[in-house]
Structure formats: structure tokens, C-alpha cells
Design brief:
By secondary structure, the protein is an alpha+beta fold. Helices cover 46% and strands 18% of the residues. It folds into 2 domains: 6-226, Cytochrome Bc1 Complex, Chain A, domain 1 (2-Layer Sandwich), CATH 3.30.830.10; 248-427, Cytochrome Bc1 Complex, Chain A, domain 1. α3 (82-92) runs antiparallel to α4 and α4 (116-128) packs parallel to α9 (215-226).
């Protein structure tokens, strides 16, 4: 579903930076909750939605079911086949799409206020009456199968799959979001319909809306679009899992460079020490050109074009990963340099100056990265709810960062990096 001029996004970014964001909590007559930022500067409405229960809900042997379902949600609905549905979206100027992660099924996009009735009706059709036509299923199945084959030739993709399987073992997180060629072929239309009914419910629905719409107008629209969904969710419970670490995994591939991932434990987003960990990581490898890893791996030794690290936070687990891509003959040196820098930060910690620089950057970059378009703000409104951050999080975020002490950040480094990591290397075999 395509097309609203990018000029609107640029203008909206200017408006957002000039004004405080007034977040309103909306509850519809049917009890559905949403967060709304009302703004009539431009005639645009951005909407973001999320349902709990991502690809971790796929059955064993049917991995990729949610991925396939997601690709079909705008491939026809109600009495509109795929071609008619896409044509109607273009006619209305509606831009809306769906995506899935390990923990959620999401949708989002933008529409013109003047076309809101027709656009909301089209979204309602996609949510409530997806067709899942046989020809569309086979077309999307072929596309996903092609992507799976391509991923097998990509060392980074192969590395991510191996990493996931290594640290999550038999947990649902160990399964591929896209599935395998075999599992994709095994998925039936009935499987897709069952997944749709399992995932979409009012109980797990989260909504964020930004733009030219009033509270009352939004209440009516939300109840009309989502009011007929099941009140209760039927998603299966997913247990928390601690990543299994300590493995050394090497996968041979006939490619020029080696892809390297080094994994340690981490903390989830709801942990009170999250910002301490976030700032510590910014100094180590999350700050791109300013990070220690970038300086040691690229600038000092020229071992790689880029290197980074980050916290991967899931609903039921978390881990820290540092990674790079380098020529085969440099792989062992690159691994050693990264590990040496991680060991150094664990033993010596970061400096007060590094922490203060990280605080300034992390505080200042948030609005630019997350609040510069209506669509991004709508996504933030969803995150405030799904991560239980509170509607005052944007106001309080700077204080959360400021309150992190040097001792907090260095304690996180010791906590994360006190164990033997899992190391995954994918690339050409090295002859001694």
C-alpha cells in the first residue's frame, strides 16, 4: 500500500521538534485502549498496531507460518482480490503494511485525513477478512522460499541462524522466523487461518495513532476496525530462556570474508539497569565511529570496514552480541582484538569522560531517531505500551540516562562479560 509524499514527513519532523508531545490515553466503548498524539498541522494520520505472539507461536515443522500469513494480509480481503485490494489502497493514498518478529505481529502506515473513512475500511477488511487465496499463498510461498535459498548464500544470515540455534537450543526462539524450504512447503491454508485466529485478539492488541484525528473519531474507528476480533487471546505461553553460551562454531562457506559474532549474556528491556547497560555498550561498540571497537578494529588495525555491538532484547530472553566481517586471513586477529577490548572493559570499566559523552549522544539522538516522523512516533506509542514504559517515558528518559552512575555502567560490563562467550564464524576455511 503506497504513497504519501515524503515532504509531509520532513515537515512533520520540524513540527515535532518545535512542540512538546501531548500523549492522550484513549479507551473506546468496547474497552480497547490506544495512545494518541493529536496534531492537525498536516492532514495525515499515522497508525501503528501490534499483537503479542510472533514467530515463536509457529508449530514445530511448520516454521514460517506467521511469516507466510503476514505476507498475505494485504493480498486480498473481503470481496477484493489482491489486484483490486492494492488498486483501492493506491486510489485512497493509503500506505499500510504488516510485519512479524519473534514476539509480535505488527502493522502500520499512514493515510490522508480526507480519505480516512475508505482507508480505515480497507484496514478493517485486511484485519477481519483476509482472503488467503490459493494463488496468493503459492506466490508468497515461492517468494519466501526464494529468500530462504538466498539467505543460505549469505554468511551473515547463516551466522544468525547458527547463533540462534546455538544459544536457544530447543526453545521456540531457536526456530527460523522465515522457516525452512521444507517447513514452508508443509504449511497449509488451514494452518494460516488457524494462526490468524490465534494471533489477532483484542486482549493482546496495542495501538498508537498520531495526526489529524480527534479522540472521538479515533474511538469510533478503532471499535469499527478491531471491535469484532476475539476478546481473549489463544496464543501459547512462551517460557523465559537463558542463552546457552560457551560454544565455538565455525561454518565453512566459499565467500571472501568471514562473518564473526561473539555473544554474551545481557538483560531485558524492563530491567532497571537497562540504561546502564545501554550506555556501557555505546562506549564499547554501539557508538559506531566513536566506539572503542571501531577504533581498535578499524582505525588502529584496518581489520574491517565496520564493527559494532548491541543488546538484543526479546520478551523472554536477552543477549549481547559484538560482530564484524573481515578477510579470512584476519579472522583470528579480529576475534582476539574484540575479545581483548571486551575483557579490558570488564576489568577496567569505562571512564567518566566516556560515560558523559555517551549520555550526551544517547539523550540528544533520541528525538532525531525516533520522533522525526508521524509514523515513528506512532511506533513509539506502541512501544510505550508493550514495554510498560509509561506515557511519561519520553519526558523521563533524559533523567533515567542522567541518573546512571559510572559504577552502574561498569557493574554491567563485569556482569555481562564474566563468562565464556559463544563465538560463531562463517566464511572460508583457513589453511595453516
Amino acid at each position: 500500500m503506497k504513497l504519501i509524499a515524503t515532504t509531509f514527513a520532513v515537515l512533520f519532523a520540524f513540527v515535532v521538534q518545535a512542540q512538546a508531545i501531548d500523549i492522550k490515553q484513549v479507551t473506546t466503548d468496547k474497552g480497547i485502549k490506544a495512545l494518541l498524539v493529536e496534531d492537525y498541522t498536516l492532514p495525515i494520520i499515522a497508525i501503528s498496531i501490534s499483537f503479542k505472539g510472533g514467530s515463536s507461536q509457529d508449530d514445530a515443522g511448520k516454521e514460517g507460518t506467521l511469516r507466510l500469513m503476514t505476507s498475505l494480509m494485504d493480498e486480498g480481503a473481503g470481496d477484493l482480490d489482491s489486484t483490486a485490494f492494492q488498486a483501492k489502497a493506491e486510489e485512497l493514498g493509503l500506505e499500510f503494511g504488516f510485519s512479524a518478529s519473534r514476539d509480535s505481529f505488527s502493522g502500520g502506515g499512514r493515510l490522508l485525513r480526507s480519505e480516512r473513512e475508505g482507508a480505515f475500511n480497507l484496514i478493517k477488511l485486511a484485519i477481519n477478512e483476509p482472503r488467503f487465496d490459493a494463488d496468493a499463498i503459492e506466490r508468497m510461498r515461492d517468494a519466501i522460499r526464494s529468500n530462504i535459498k538466498s539467505a543460505k548464500k549469505n554468511p551473515s544470515s547463516v551466522g544468525r541462524e547458527a547463533l540462534r540455534e546455538a544459544i536457544f537450543k530447543d526453545h521456540p526462539y531457536s526456530r527460523s522466523t522465515s522457516g525452512t524450504e521444507q517447513s514452508i512447503d508443509a504449511i497449509t491454508r488451514d494452518d494460516i487461518i488457524a494462526m490468524n485466529k490465534k494471533i489477532l485478539s483484542r486482549e493482546t492488541l496495542t495501538i498508537g495513532v498520531v495526526g489529524a484525528i480527534s479522540e472521538e473519531e479515533l474511538k469510533i474507528a478503532i471499535d469499527d476496525i478491531f471491535g469484532n476480533l476475539s476478546e481473549k487471546s489463544s496464543i501459547q505461553k512462551i517460557e523465559d530462556v537463558t542463552p546457552a553460551l560457551g560454544d565455538d562454531i565455525s561454518i565453512a562457506m566459499p565467500v571472501p570474508n568471514a562473518s564473526i559474532s561473539i555473544v554474551y549474556p545481557a538483560i531485558k528491556r524492563d530491567n532497571p539497569d537497562f540504561f546502564a547497560a545501554h550506555l556501557m555498550n555505546h562506549v564499547l561498540g554501539g557508538g559506531s565511529f566513536s566506539s572503542r571497537l571501531y577504533r581498535e578494529v578499524r582505525e588502529e588495525r584496518g581489520l574491517a570496514y565496520g564493527v559494532s555491538s548491541g543488546l538484543a532484547t526479546l520478551d523472554h530472553s536477552a543477549y549481547f552480541v559484538a560482530g564484524t566481517s573481515t578477510r579470512a586471513e584476519n579472522r583470528e586477529e579480529a576475534i582476539q582484538v574484540i575479545r581483548n577490548e571486551i575483557d579490558r572493559i570488564a576489568k577496567e570499566g569505562i571512564t567518566k569522560e566516556e560515560l558523559e559523552k555517551a549520555k550526551r549522544y544517547v539523550s540528544g539522538s533520541y528525538a532525531i531517531s525516533n520522533l522525526d516522523t508521524s509514523g515513528k512516533i506512532a511506533s513509539v506509542l506502541v512501544a510505550l505500551q508493550t514495554q510498560n514504559l509509561g506515557v511519561d517515558y519520553i519526558e523521563k528518559r533524559e533523567k533515567y540516562i542522567a541518573d546512571v552512575t559510572l559504577e552502574d555502567a561498569n557493574r554491567m560490563a563485569k556482569e555481562f562479560f564474566s563468562v565464556k562467550p559463544t563465538i560463531v564464524v562463517v566464511g572460508p576455511e583457513v589453511t595453516q
